[in-house]
Amino acid sequence: MSRMRGSILTALAFAGTAMAVAMTAPLAAQEGEGKLEIISGDDPARLDVRDIEQFREVAADGSFLPRADALSLEGLLGDYDLALPLRQPCAASLCLTGYAKRASLPQRPQDTHFVGFDLGSGADAAQLPRSPISLVLVADRSGSMAGRRIELEREALLAVLDQLHDDDRVALVSFDKHGRTDMPMAEVGPNRGIIGNAIRALGADGDTHMETGLKLGYDIAAAERAQSGRETRVMLLTDELPNASAEQPAGFMGMTQAAARQGIGLTLVGMDIRFDNALTMKLANIGGGNAHHIALSDDARELVRSSFVSTISPVARDAVLTVSPAPGSRISALYGVPPSTVSRGADGSVSVRLGSVFLAGDRGELLVGMTGNGAASGQLASATLSYSDALSGASGTDSIALATGAGEPPANLAAAEALVDEFLTLDNALKQYHASGDAGAAADTFGRLQQRLSSGTVPMLGREQAMVSRLAASAHRLQSGGGAIAGDIDQLGIVGQWSIVSQKGLRDLAPGDIVEITPARELVTIRQSGEQAGTRIAQTFQVSANELHIDNTSLVFAYSLDGTKLKLATPGNERNLRLKRIGS
């Protein structure tokens, strides 16, 4: 559960995944209006590769340049507190704030202004509606949760139990590769000790299959909802990134949508992981879903204690934000908004459905690119927020006007723009390199970005300066021939089919599975046994004379070839794979 920052809602940051050639929403532009680009992470091919820490790890390794589609603007923005200050105290359920600055985005020279909107609330969490609830706790107990993460998870679950009333009802489900019911649905009062013991008994081991645990949790919730008719919610705690594009019935979003139609909400809690806006906005729009995170350094009990009610009870529903350009301006870009939540008016306005809004949750600013200098009066745009108050059901609105040259913008808006600049520039440079092998062009682009980040105008971005500096150094090394193999990899002797002899620390691989390494730099795993027998998993890779990096992951293996035997191992041998050539 995220901390509340006074009356400011934890971010509504709509940012895009790695696409400088942006995904453009299928919204028809009016004649002469110009194109509205929705630079969005809502791309099924990319939704499962958004862990910014993976990108940072590969950049820090220095042996390879990560691929552009491993980069996430949502992840970049999510690493920072970018809340925008309210212009005046808020006495309503929701209030709108916004600021504009002159744009400075080399990859988007057509944009003249960079605009950010944020929400605040005058609501008191203690006054939010809190009727008896039936809560299904779904806990990840897979091997990746071992150590501090499983400790945090147990602390968070025990804190949730502390916040439940005696007449609330709760069930506990846990999962690794399989799901199990640790505690069937029961009233809290007489069973508080039993439930606590079940939570304390949770360990961490095995592979992860989130959908298996989630399905079991939703099945229990559906039966409870049908029997009791009371408010029912699933709370899923995991360190995995859900695939928000999995809208088939058995996929994450498909199950969540089906549950929402039955009146069952989802609270998603990331254990040492943040979820991006394409996911959080979808959850908010399908029936009161929300997302939160708990960092390794957090006091999980205090976070839950301070925000539990504002986590399960929204402050507003059906929220919609409409931005209208003034004459002489137009909206040219939205960052990270799922196209399905956007509609465009004939007057050039853009409306974004925000859905349910909670006082606690992982969100950020709505970031907008605009072209033109606005009206002669100096007005650039106006914005209107509409919503339904969750407590009274009454309709509420708020509106603001933005003018050009309206004073110095907040530092956080400048930081948000610098992160957008970083994302767009890295995306362009990495595409230059991976499409054409032009390490020199990539190095020059990294260098110019490094200069902008080091200008001192946004001092909070030292971490980004360091990462871009490492990428520039890697590109210069590749330019001089001291890195990844750019030509034929047959000379390395690793192309062919291999059988897995043994593995350590690698999920969903087993002895006997087949690994095919192709000249096109594809690594194809073919499962030979178990529930996934016959499944083919294809990934691309980069390779040097002695290392192999699997794209869109943090995995960099040193490899050694000994006749018909091939060994791949990460530094420290924490993960390794031993293979034997097939047909030798």
Mean pLDDT: 84
Q: What is the general shape?
A: flat
The N- to C-terminal Cα distance equals 55 Å
Strand order of the largest sheet: 17-18-19-20-21-22-23-24
The low-confidence runs, each spanning 5 or more residues with pLDDT under 50, are 1-32, 44-50
User: How much strand?
Assistant: 25-35%
Structural Rg:
25 Å
**Total number of helical segments?**
11
Secondary-structure class: alpha+beta
Beta strands, count = 24
| Main sheet attributes: strand count, strand direction, barrel closure | 8 strands, antiparallel, barrel
Model description:
This protein is an alpha+beta fold and 584 residues long. Helices cover 27% and strands 29% of the residues. The chain is flat. It contains 11 helices and 24 strands. The strands form 4 sheets. An 8-stranded antiparallel β-barrel has the order 17-18-19-20-21-22-23-24. A hairpin with a 2-residue loop joins strand 22 and strand 23.
